């Protein structure tokens, strides 16, 4: 089998894995309202999308290269003026341990 054929098979397998993972994310993330939002992709308007994210006082966005591998080379871009950042770590730690004390 030629290396071109191997590359083609690898690309198809990667595409199928990514599609499976996207379906899983859509299934896991609940319907709105929730703190998470699944967006299939934003193309060419990432800066505007981030500006709107900041305007809505959301924590930030996750970005990756369009043809980058799923889960590899992702960037978390945080809203520097996010008003609810203070105490977030403690909130999640309490939820993880099951403690309800404030």
Topology of this structure?
Elements: H1 3-28, H2 46-55, E1 60-63, E2 75-78, H3 88-97
Antiparallel strand pairs: 1-2
How many helices does DSSP assign?
A: 3
The pLDDT mean sits at 76
Contiguous runs where pLDDT drops below 50 for at least 5 residues: none
- Report the radius of gyration as a whole number of Å: 18 Å
As laid out across the biggest beta sheet, the strand order is 1-2
Beta-strand percentage range: 5-15%
- Largest sheet, described in full? 2 strands, antiparallel
**Helix content, binned percent:** 40-55%
| Shape, per Cα inertia axes | globular
The tally of domains stands at: 2
Give your account of this protein's structure.
The chain folds into two domains: 1-38; 43-102, no CATH class. 45% of the residues lie in helices and 8% in strands. The protein is built from three helices and two strands, in the order H-H-E-E-H. The protein has a two-stranded antiparallel ribbon. The relative contact order is 0.09.
Quick overview of this protein structure:
The chain is mainly α and 102 residues long.
List keywords for this structure.
single chain, 102 residues, mainly alpha, 2 domains, two-stranded antiparallel ribbon, 3 helices, 2 strands, 45% helix
């Amino acid at each position: 089998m030629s290396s071109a054929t191997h590359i083609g098979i690898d690309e198809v397998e990667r595409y199928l894995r990514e599609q499976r993972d996207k379906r899983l994310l859509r299934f896991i993330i609940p319907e709105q309202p929730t703190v998470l939002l699944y967006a299939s992709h934003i193309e060419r308007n990432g800066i505007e999308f981030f500006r709107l994210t900041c305007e809505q006082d959301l924590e930030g966005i996750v970005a990756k290269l369009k043809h980058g591998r799923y889960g590899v080379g992702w960037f978390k871009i945080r809203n520097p003026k996010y008003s609810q950042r203070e105490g977030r770590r403690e909130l999640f730690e309490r939820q993880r341990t099951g403690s309800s004390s404030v």
